[in-house]
Amino acid sequence: MAVNRFAVRLGDLSVGFIHNLLDTVNSLGHDTRELRERFALTPQRLSEADGRLSIPRYMRLGHACIELTGRADIGLLAGARHNATHLGLAGIVARSAPTLREALRCITEFESLYAQNYRGQSSFHEDANGAWLRFYSISPYNDYNRFVVDSVLAGWATQLSQLAGSQPCLEQVQIEFAAPGYHAAYSAHFKAPVEFSSERNQLRLSKSCLDMALPEHCPSTWTKLKQLAEREREQRTHTRTLREKVIQQIGPLLLGHEPDIEDIAARLGLPSWTLRRKLTDEGSGFRQLLNETRHDLATTYVRDTDLSFGEIAYLLGFASAGAFQRAFKRWSGSTPGDYRRQQRRG
After folding, report:
1. CA distance 225 to 93
2. Closest CA to 213 of 172, 173, 170, 167
3. How many angstroms separate the first and last alpha carbons of the chain?
4. What's the pTM?
5. How far is CA 334 from CA 299, 326, 328, in A?
6. Which of 106, 111, 130, 233 is most enclosed, with most CB atoms within 10 A?
7. How far apart are CA 339 and CA 146, in angstroms?
């Protein structure tokens, strides 16, 4: 029996982020009408209840905003203007939480309500001395995606200041990429030590802040909003087949590495032989799903980004750019370069 293809996407995010970015450009004295037309950001699209924009398109929009304004730090500026409504229901739930700890957990646990990326998801890690609020890696970094890390971390810092008021909570900022030319802007925004070329993208929070009671908490409202968010998350993340679950696990493991069935089985809590048998019962196999996932992601990367083929090879776990290009030609019948040129002419 034929199995429906489960398309893999790089990810998308709520149009709430688009409102924030365009408002930031306007605040710098620039007209955004041309940007809205170029990226088809009509009033109708920006007012859709579940409106989303693809990650590649968002990165191109951010780069266009940098070119228009001449501000390489546009992500930091957008983060400074961030508010709970840009996160939709997840942001409102966070503001109604009983403590800062619970608010931050809501921002990460309900991330799928406002953003998703096959590379991973944000997370909250508490220890004996405080906590880390962590954004996943989207390396390799370039002029198109640095601003994404800037806007996320700066937006979290703004959320912290809005929730905690005058009490200082941020102790340190760690960023994966090397210090950019506008590095002085980071200290001005975060008002905390910033470490570049780090292993992770994350904010360090003081232990004293985590138990802070939030002024907008109402127990009944908090319970109702959290139930709504949990139901919506279940609807968004529910998968019907094992093959779909396997594909969702393959994506985050591809970075510089070709995962095997043992890797995926461990993440799903299954013995590898059980996973292999169940996939066979569904008319599929691990190698087939790995190739389909790579094919779908490769097509999107080549068509929708300006990453080099060496960078794409690394992101998809190939040993070399040559190995990636041979696989791409086998999948599509053309080289990545020819495919990219053809798509952009169209």
Report:
1. 6
2. 167
3. 35
4. 0.88
5. 11, 9, 7
6. 106
7. 26
CA distance 303 to 343: 6
Q: Which residues of 250-282 are buried (b: 16+ CB within 10 A; e: fewer)?
A: bbbbbbeeebebebbbebbebebeebeebbeee
Structural tokens at position 89: 């229901």
pLDDT (tens digit, 0 to 9) for every residue of the chain, 346 residues total? 334 455 556 889 999 999 999 999 999 999 999 999 999 999 999 999 889 999 989 999 999 999 999 999 999 999 999 999 999 999 999 999 999 999 999 999 999 999 998 888 999 999 999 999 999 999 889 888 999 999 999 999 999 999 988 788 999 999 999 999 999 999 989 999 999 999 999 999 999 999 999 999 999 999 999 999 999 998 876 766 888 889 888 988 898 889 999 999 999 999 999 999 999 998 999 999 999 999 999 998 998 888 899 999 999 999 999 999 999 999 999 999 999 999 877 5
Reduced to 3 states (helix: H, G, I; strand: E, B; else coil), residue 133 is strand
Q: Which two tokens stand for residue 167?
A: 């009490």
